[in-house]
Model the fold of this input.
Amino acid sequence: MLDKRENLKKEVLFEESNFIKKKALDTMIEMTEKITKMDGSRSTIIPFFSIERHSQEIPPTPGVMNPAFGIILQGRKEVHLGNEIIHFNPGDFVASIIDMPVSVQVKGVSKELPSISLRIGFTRSEIASVVMDAHIEFNIKNKNLYLGAFVGRSDEELLDLFIRLLKLTDRPKDAYFLSELIKREMIYHLLTGEYGYLFFQQVLVDQEIVGIGKAIEWIKENYTRSFTVEELAKSNNMSVSGLHHKFKAVTAIGPLQYQKELRLHEARRLMLSDSIDVTTAAMEVGYESSSQFTREYKRLFGQPPLKDIRALRKSFENGEFQSGI
Done:
């Protein structure tokens, strides 16, 4: 009899919690609708805080997931990292600490029920600062390497922090000071919550993956240079097989593929924003052969450079938006 009462009590608490979360999500949706009803990514007066909205489904579209913490309020997303697929539903959050080439698909949306998500950018140093200032300690449950991103389920406290941040978007004087405090509180909440050890591992503090963090940073800073996996492994005091295994465990792809995708994404950005031609874009990001660049570009983005850029510009003119996290 006692067990039945306990189970009933748990069910009631669970339903109450879900009701509170649903109410919080609805409140945030209303608040974002007051800020923007346009499709795409909208910056706010808070530098690290943006809103993303889609009223049309978007097929798998290549992009780069930057270090950020995001939450989806409405709609569904699928983030493809190599052979892994992360399903992202209302109330879920995704956290990433490294730049990762991904493919993003937006599903289950319409003009009446658009996809709406919020994004907060952060750095590893900001996370490390909170760890040190709050004297947070971890009991690492699993020494295995994780992909450089993971999804968790938001709780009432986290949703409340997002509501507080949204309220600051029309209070410029308060936002300048208070937004940074809320951001630190969010990081603290993530670090001390159910997924804290996963979030902490992504800071690449664990000695097993410090070398991978350094390797990733080196490639990001030198993506236009040619290098071999052997050279990269040697410079990080790792074996070739060890580097490849751990690099793929974190990013879902190998070092050379990571470099290639960074090059192609940057070339795409240059052609789109700076209106430079294909040959110049290829040379700018380190390619010596335009034909090789075109082949690899088509393989990643699904069509040749010029055709892809024309399609992108047309989609922007129509108010559509390409992939983002």
Remarks:
- Strands lie at 40-43, 49-54, 58-65, 68-74, 76-81, 84-88, 92-96, 100-107, 115-121, 149-153.
- The longest helix spans residues 2-35.
- Residues 319-323 have pLDDT under 50 and may be disordered.
- DSSP finds twelve helices and ten strands in the chain.
